[in-house]
Structures are given as structure tokens and as C-alpha cells.
Amino acid sequence: MAGKCPDYINDLSDYLDGGVSPELCAEIEAHLGECRECRIMVDTLRQTVTLCRAGAEEPLPQALENKLKSLLRQRWEKKFSK
Ligand SMILES: [Zn+2]
Known about the structure:
The protein is mostly helical. It has one domain. 80% of the residues lie in helices and 0% in strands. The protein has helices spanning 5-17, 22-34, 36-56, 62-80. α1 (5-17) runs parallel beside α3 and α1 (5-17) runs antiparallel to α4 (62-80). The chain is globular. The structure holds zinc ion. The site of zinc ion (ZN) has 6 residues, from α1 and α3.
């Protein structure tokens, strides 16, 4: 199961934007229910998104989003390559 986590990275930011289908949304939420790592990721992303929006009322800038994703990916790869 844990090996699937990196597959969710791209979906998680869409999920926070409400840009996923109901099916994918349910799948992500089911995964979040059993995966602490992804819950932490969503919390982190959600806080970042909230902070960004509170400041500018704009979507998460693409550059920041890409940076976040690569950060998350690195963290995951480190964690699951052990
Ligand atoms: Zn996960």
C-alpha cells in the first residue's frame, strides 16, 4: 500500500482544489484514512494553500506547487527506499 503513495502526489493538490472526480476523491479519502504519511502531506499542503490564499486570494503559484511536489516526492522516496 505504502508504495502507492507517490502516485497520489499529483492528485493531492487537485484534491485540495476540489478538482478531482468524485471517484478519485473517494479513493484519496480512503487512502488518507489508512495512511498517516499522506494525511500529513494533505495537512501541510492545505496549510500552505490556505496561507497563500489568505495572503493573495490567488491559486497556488505554479512554481511553488512544483517545488512542493518535488519536496514531497523527495521525502517519500527517502522514506520508502529504506
Ligand atoms: Zn499514502
